[in-house]
Automatic annotation (TrEMBL):
Pfam families: Methyltransf_11 (PF08241). It comes from the Bacteria. One of its GO terms (biological process) is methylation. Keywords: Methyltransferase, Transferase. Residues 45-133 form the Methyltransferase type domain. This is Methyltransferase domain-containing protein. Belongs to the methyltransferase superfamily. GO terms for molecular function: S-adenosylmethionine-dependent methyltransferase activity. InterPro entries: Diverse_substrate_MTase, Methyltransf_11, SAM-dependent_MTases_sf. The lineage of its organism: Bacteria, Bacillati, Actinomycetota, Actinomycetes, Catenulisporales. SUPFAM superfamilies: S-adenosyl-L-methionine-dependent methyltransferases.
Amino acid sequence: MTTDTAKSARATSFGTAAQDYDRYRVGLPEEVADAVLPRGLDAVLDLGAGTGAMTRLLLGRARHVYAVDPDPRMTELLAGNCPGVEVHEGTGEHIPLPDACVDAVVVASAWHWMDPDAAIPEIARVLRPAGTLHLVWNRRDRDVPWVADLERLRLEVAGGDDWVEGRIRHYVSEPWLPAAAPLTDVRIEALPWSAAMTEDELARLLTTFHAFIAAPAERKPAMLRTFAEHVAADARIQPGDEGLVRVPMLCHVWSATRA
């Protein structure tokens, strides 16, 4: 299997756990979404939309919302979650939309699966003049010790690597652009916030990553039990009065404008 083929297979593996992915992955709150993308747009594209966590937020920000994802299991769930959205199967490198049809393209926690040299020109093709591209990663803040410990446990128990984390850090570290890209005015932000979830939701969140999804079915109950036991035993993760854990989050945003 070639590197590109393996990467594509890994990217689309999440469709086998689409329901859990949709339920336990943490979406952005309205106030952070407002900072990422203004309201009142005519048309916006959620590229690599998955099950529609970002798409649902875009519905109140644009008159027309498109969603594109390569996995039909994801797009089926997305279409059910987001009535009124025009949903297509496609990739960042091959967007099934006409030229200059959107004011903004948002890629939420999916850019690391795309080839920038091929995706940037294709995104620029569907953007209107002065339209904007927003690459967004909504992630747990690993600079917080208990979050870092939980991430290490996830890798120890489920296996896999930190390839995605490395790609995120690469993309949000500098205002990069492929050669001759028709984009300008690169802006990078890190917006802190906190997510409220139960201990069970926090443990099950760890099951929505590739290594767990790809693990043998007979191993998964014991792996989930290890996650749950760690969350319950770590005094730093204890829920507050409402029975909810406050999970520190960072929303990383890389934005640029169509030249």
